[in-house]
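Regression test case RT-17, inverse folding.

Input:
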């Protein structure tokens, strides 16, 4: 299948990967429409790719060893133990991951988008109108253009998905992630190659190093917990959103800081509480499944298609794998119906499996946390196994294996 005009709505990680897929598939004209300006690269939150998934994506041409990353080899789960500086270890597990900064990973993917792809920053898509053999895209300034195919890579608030399945929105899971990045990344325990999970009643906090883009490291952390109930907050979180520092409610911030001070081992409490307010934000946690990944000449990739809670460690992996699968379907198909049908058949079940596993992990790690104080390694191992019980063995923690049989 060669030729055709393609619009990619969304120009972040999923969008850049989709543009690469369309180019390699042989599209004649590709336009990327990204609502944000060039400051996308400033996003500093962490992303971790399982080493096996990295190898598969490297072989597919979507990531390279040159992309800045920090090695992770082990994950240590710890609980507060009085005034013991680092707390008590309740469990350890292998953690063969590569840690990235979102901004640096996006920058590397953006750099690999071919020069003949028209990448438009500040292009806000307001509507997508399909017809029998194409799709018309409308922008907020009234401009409109028709394409043979539109790829929705516009995240969990996707305009493309709304055109395909009206009312199919991401659903609030009932808890939040409080995220931060800090320059306070020196003198970490061991060699800095560990991810640390600090546990407490009603949640946990994951902490690890990521590249800072200048040859050093940042300390990246995300704390998952159910916020105190407040009608105004609950109403705001139910509509897919995120809350940057300037919009954080003072009462919520005080609650989260108090939670850290009361429940974290002293060493880790200090690391989190010293994080600059300007680099913290709230990420409400959502779930989303869609009936199909394609409809007519419209296609979904990444979080526009399905949203799995972050505990699975496979969100960015899935976005890149979606693009790779689309490229493969493009190369094998003879017409649009065959290309898009093959892509949907290959990705729909995988997305559903990842969402289901992430829900189980969220229930175990946040919604119904165990008695951490009673845990040692054997109890931890059993608890971890129960979360993965029943999973498709190709879809586990770290994302879906495209090579396993």
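Golden output:
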């Amino acid at each position: 299948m060669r030729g055709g005009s393609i619009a990619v709505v969304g120009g972040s990680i999923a969008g850049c990967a989709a543009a690469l897929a369309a180019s390699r598939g042989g599209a004649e004209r590709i336009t990327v429409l990204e609502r944000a300006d060039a400051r996308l690269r400033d996003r500093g939150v962490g992303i971790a790719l399982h080493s096996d998934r990295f190898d598969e994506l490297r072989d597919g041409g979507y990531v390279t060893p040159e992309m800045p990353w920090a090695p992770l080899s082990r994950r240590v789960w710890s609980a507060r133990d009085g005034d013991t500086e680092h707390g008590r270890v309740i469990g350890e597990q292998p953690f063969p991951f590569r840690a990235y900064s979102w901004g640096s990973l996006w920058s590397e993917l953006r750099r690999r988008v071919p020069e003949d792809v028209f990448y438009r920053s500040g292009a806000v898509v307001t509507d997508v109108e399909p017809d029998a053999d194409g799709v018309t895209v409308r922008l907020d300034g009234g401009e409109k253009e028709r394409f043979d195919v539109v790829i929705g890579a516009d995240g969990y608030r996707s305009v493309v998905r709304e055109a395909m399945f009206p009312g199919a929105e991401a659903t609030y899971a009932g808890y939040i992630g409080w995220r931060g990045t800090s320059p306070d990344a020196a003198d970490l325990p061991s060699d800095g190659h560990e991810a640390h999970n600090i546990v407490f009643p009603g949640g946990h906090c994951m902490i690890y190093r990521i590249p800072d883009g200048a040859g050093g490291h940042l300390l990246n952390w995300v704390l998952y917990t159910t916020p105190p109930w407040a009608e105004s907050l609950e109403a705001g979180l139910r509509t897919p959103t995120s809350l940057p520092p300037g919009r954080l409610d003072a009462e919520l911030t005080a609650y989260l800081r108090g939670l850290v001070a009361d429940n974290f081992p002293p060493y880790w409490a200090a690391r989190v509480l010293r994080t600059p307010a300007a680099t913290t934000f709230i990420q409400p946690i959502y779930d989303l499944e869609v009936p199909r990944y394609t409809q007519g000449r419209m296609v979904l990739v990444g979080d526009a298609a399905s949203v799995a809670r972050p505990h699975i460690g496979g969100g960015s992996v899935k976005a890149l794998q979606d693009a790779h699968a689309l490229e493969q379907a493009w190369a094998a198909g003879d017409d649009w119906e065959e290309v898009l049908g093959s892509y949907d058949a290959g990705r729909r079940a995988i997305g559903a499996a990842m969402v289901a596993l992430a829900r189980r992990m969220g229930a175990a790690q946040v919604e119904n946390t165990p008695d951490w104080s009673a845990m040692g390694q054997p109890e931890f191992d059993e608890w971890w196994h129960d979360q993965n019980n029943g999973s498709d063995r190709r879809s586990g923690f770290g994302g879906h294996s495209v090579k396993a049989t």
